[in-house]
Amino acid sequence: MLELGTKFLLSYFLGSIMGSTIVGRLRGGVDIRTMGSGNAGSTNALRTQGWVFAIGVMVVDLGKGAVAAGFIPGLSLPYIPEDPELSRTWLALCCAGAAVTGHVWPIGQHFKGGKGAATLVGTLTVLAPGVIFPIFLVWAWILTLFGYVGLATIAAGVAAPLYLIITLFPDDQPLIIYMLTLAVFMIFTHRSNIQRMKAGTEHRNTRLMLFRRSQSK
Q: Are the beta carbons of 66 and 5 closer than 8 angstroms?
């Protein structure tokens, strides 16, 4: 339990390091939490600061998810012995989930962070790289149909465990449980997007909507 608790906390603190804060400081103290939607993630970074800023944010947020899932579980820590009864698979999944949690509720940002999607994808680059391309296709499909980034992200998050169930079940059940849990978590973190879509006030990127383009011709 000591190893699990320590590495969980390390992953949470790593997840609390916000890409938007790092890139914002490099850009002279830009704080995107005071702009646009007020979210600290890459989507708001793109809307308020442009592609270069948003890519920098995404690289940091993806990277910390990958490090939490792939490096911290095997890290040798002084005075923290390896627990022989602790499943290495579950340890990696717990560290991955902790990083996503840290991104959403970062301790150094008054628990006001992003929505966790980029960090979740970062964990999948280690845990299940084969699922990334299929869920990207779902994300892109929904985005080009409806123009809502939040809706596309929710759809991709829900598609991921379904894809794993179809392709892996009954094997890799811990990974499936992880993705089912994180799919529900993605819906929770995007609840404000859902409310704005219902109210008709959600930002819609009509330039990416293929159907809208075909209508305008």
A: no
